[in-house]
Protein: Sulfotransferase
Organism: Taeniopygia guttata
Amino acid sequence: MEFVLIDMFSLAMDKMKDLRLEETVIRSELFDVDGVPLAEPIARIWDQVWKFKARPDDVLIATYAKAGTTWTQEIVDMIQQNGDTEKCKRETTYKRHPFLEWYCAEPPSARYSGLELAEAMPSPRTMKTHLPVQLLPPSFLEQNCKIIYVARNAKDNLVSYYHFHRMNKGLPDPGTWEEFVQKFMTGKVPWGSWYDHVKGWWKAKHKHRILYLFYEDMKENPKREIQKIAKFLEKDLSEEVLNKIVHNTSFEVMKENPMANYTKDFEGIMDHSISPFMRKGIVADWKNHFTVAQNKKFDEDYEKKMSDTSLVFRMEL
């Protein structure tokens, strides 16, 4: 009987803890920053983000959210550390590569300021951003920094972003799948329109030091794409180190790596029981989500919005 009472007490305490978290973590509203919806905490510190001072040897990883960012960060870190897996476990991804614009004040246990981390970091720094190119702090282009941009096909990106919203209380409530499809198509999601994002960076690559990669190419032939990144970063890798990087940055290995899978960060904000941060990492998962009607509507809209660019995506491999 005593055991049952203790168990009931611990269950009650857990429930109270969950309730406290629900009270302290309020889902963010979206605020317009120069025509782009951003989470309220980012909008609050926008002046500081815009005035950020990049250094010439900074490396920036830029993506639309859920387009292979963490994967690319791990690849870049492993290249920079010459394949030393222990060095790549020195800290979690969020601390190794500051998320430039992200700011989170509540709850205090999950407080994060990408700006503060970046400013305190010695050179050479590697950072990440989800900002569209027109909102990128001007100093990155003025300093001619190396920028790696990764783009993922719209349908898979949408699916991944929907599940990320479900598990991440730092983002607005996604609503139903149907509602989220509509929000994505109209750009009423954090960091704005996927279409403007991928097209804007595509255009910018002709004038700046930007390596533009595709998620689908990375899945199809990771070794080839890792070699491209290494060449861009001016790093010579032996065949042995290259193979080690391919293995250690595979989805299966990274999913089990607490330094990369976000299980050690943002407790109370990210709920991996709803959907793991590293969910599937595949191409064409959209086929498991879109109805025939949704797919038809999406394709028609996509064709219109992508008619003014040479950019082409593969929706399946």
Confidence is low (pLDDT under 50) at residues 1-13, 15-23. The chain has 15 helices and eight strands.
